[in-house]
């Protein structure tokens, strides 16, 4: 952060006209407030509905000021706005349709060399202002002005924001967890630049704010909390020309917010994500041990695992981006992003490669060039789908909840694979239940927790639907695990399945020794003898244990159908 002098000027600004203009602005404000208090604290343009002096300007006696400890009003204020006339009577900007809504005020107060005078800059954000197909309902106005401590008065005007150090200050104001999910996308910014009335107002309107600051609670009681302030004021917007006001006067009411609460909530969230990622690593290791053979890995759907790996890659990028936007929380979000990176780049990609190799047993001996070529196809498809999904979500970011709902259908490919291949117990029970619960943790927190740090309104219906949809998939997988992969399909439509217990000619000349255990086979007992399609005989237990490792005939290496 650049060093500043007593007037709040940075080193960059001291050499130019900006610091001089700030000094003149502060001196002018003091002259108006001290020597001409009645006329100066009214809105800059006389109007019939301006505040009366008895309401706006309440000069404090010295006995009311208490100990001379200037208030630091820097912080975030949350409140509401409303038209004094119950609606917008101006015809200049009829898109201001709503009569009231929520507002957020961000202020940075810098003491000047003049005692009791602070230079203030910040942002006023109005929500629920405009209704249109782009759903751009927020108006953001950059302001600057002065705060006169002895009179508790705040006077601000709109700042055009011409870049430089002021733009950096405004960006730093909005880079806290309170505004993390309210960052506008480039598409919204471009649309607002060409359609939103706020840009027209900056060209044709003077925006003036006059407010009174009051202390709600003091942080000097030793509990570590900061002072809480309340802002109550009026915003007017007289036009530059004589065509009338840009909009009717607005009443503002806002109370300071303890940002430390949101920082603590954000840190607790990253701890939850880190713990969930650690559990997912343990579950993946358990599943890899469960299917550590070629036959076991071939039963696992590569689409199921690939979909989960893409989800973890998105979460890694999302948390890393959040850490970059909120510098004070970079370490916490970077830790969560690192664990997500470990999950998808090391464990899930390694498991993907094992499944891919298990599904191509005939290609393992064809040389390194063939293997490298097919590996490049696998990775190019994975990262192509990853980048394509990012572009798709960027274009359809307003439909994020349906997209998340679709992404949580990751068990469906495994259900379909079980039916097609008639697989037996491809996934461990702990892996199915554990992955389901851990993957539901983040969306249920974001869209279901009423006090999440991103301040997203809870949607209980959506959360219930997501949980029911996910556990319905889990129920089908568990039933396939215990009753067979095709338990819910009628026998009439099932394809013909090869029977390893088919009848044989007792008088035929068949080899009666099992090449697996090298002992004799009693062909007269059908349940103890399994016959492969290539007419080789084995003990039932021996061949079943062999098929758990390889789906090849132990004698001729021919591929075997599922049992």
Automatic annotation (TrEMBL):
Keyword Membrane included in the entry's annotation: yes
One Pfam family from the record: DUF2921
Keyword terms of this UniProt record: Membrane, Metal-binding, Signal, Transferase, Transmembrane, Transmembrane helix, Ubl conjugation pathway, Zinc, Zinc-finger
InterPro entries: DUF2921 (IPR021319), HRD1_E3_ubiq-ligases (IPR050731), Znf_RING (IPR001841), Znf_RING-CH (IPR011016), Znf_RING/FYVE/PHD (IPR013083)
GO cellular component entries: endomembrane system
Top-level taxon of the source organism: Eukaryota
Record domain RING-type: where: 514-557
Classification via PROSITE patterns: ZF_RING_2
Keyword Zinc-finger: yes
Record's bilayer topology term: Multi-pass membrane protein
Biochemical pathway: Protein modification; protein ubiquitination
TM segment ranges: 266-285, 305-326, 332-354, 375-393, 427-447, 459-479
GO terms of biological process kind: proteasome-mediated ubiquitin-dependent protein catabolic process
Gene3D superfamilies: Zinc/RING finger domain, C3HC4 (zinc finger)
EC number: 2.3.2.27
Reaction(s) this enzyme catalyzes, per UniProt: S-ubiquitinyl-[E2 ubiquitin-conjugating enzyme]-L-cysteine + [acceptor protein]-L-lysine = [E2 ubiquitin-conjugating enzyme]-L-cysteine + N(6)-ubiquitinyl-[acceptor protein]-L-lysine
Extent of the signal sequence: none
Single annotated GO MF: ubiquitin protein ligase activity
PANTHER family: RING ZINC FINGER PROTEIN (PTHR22763), TRANSMEMBRANE E3 UBIQUITIN-PROTEIN LIGASE 1 (PTHR22763:SF162)
Record-given protein name: RING-type E3 ubiquitin transferase
Lineage: Eukaryota, Viridiplantae, Streptophyta, Embryophyta, Tracheophyta
Gene name of this polypeptide: LOC111469674
